[in-house]
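[Meeting: bench + compute handoff]

Bench side (C.D.) handed over the final construct sequence. Compute side (W.E.) agreed to return the predicted structure before the next meeting so the bench team could plan truncations. Sequence as handed over:
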Amino acid sequence: MTVQMLPATLRSYYRDTYTTLAKAKVAEVGKDQDGTYLILDNTIFHPQGGGQPSDQGWIELDDQQAEVKKLVVSEGIVKHYCEGTFEIGQTVTQKVDKDKRQLHARWHSAGHLLSNAVNQLYPDLQGSNGHHFPGAGYVTFEGPIPQDLPTFKSEVGLLVNSLVQQALPTVNLWDQPSRQIQFGDLPAYPCGGTHVANTNEIGLITIRNTKKNQGKLRVGYNIE
């Protein structure tokens, strides 16, 4: 069976950030220019995308443990690149590095909550893209850039941490053309990443810097 004939991989991480151990069946074993890969009927591994890095972890069968070195998604199918001896139809165990998963979820949720805070204070600024890698997070906004950026930084920092302390629940919205993420009653955003259960799990958010570039405003952030 060719990869194109396989059904889309069920991506369990959409609905549950906290599952880091799960069974799956091997749907395909293949090799391409990137190496040997497995396609599973379902996956808890998040591939890099939407500003979030890939999960790390292992796929296990009996006494072999294969490190997942790379994840690629194409036309809805997730390829898990790893070395090992696997066959179609075998049941394997997926193990995601739970500490990395939680860290990535915190950074991703922080970026979305930062967008909510900016939009609440400066409605004409709209987030256009984000980068949520640990230690290098930022969100880029388009619209009229405030003249007083120190005040902007202070106001946004106060509001976003107020939202953190409110422990707003994270809601997955599925009645849209694509999955959307919402914190409490704040505006929702389309998203394919992993998120914390409530905003209090993010921790303190600090605005690292603000940079103007080609008519856009980039807001860098950290979490503690």
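W.E. noted at the follow-up: The mean pLDDT is 95. C.D. will use this when planning the next construct.
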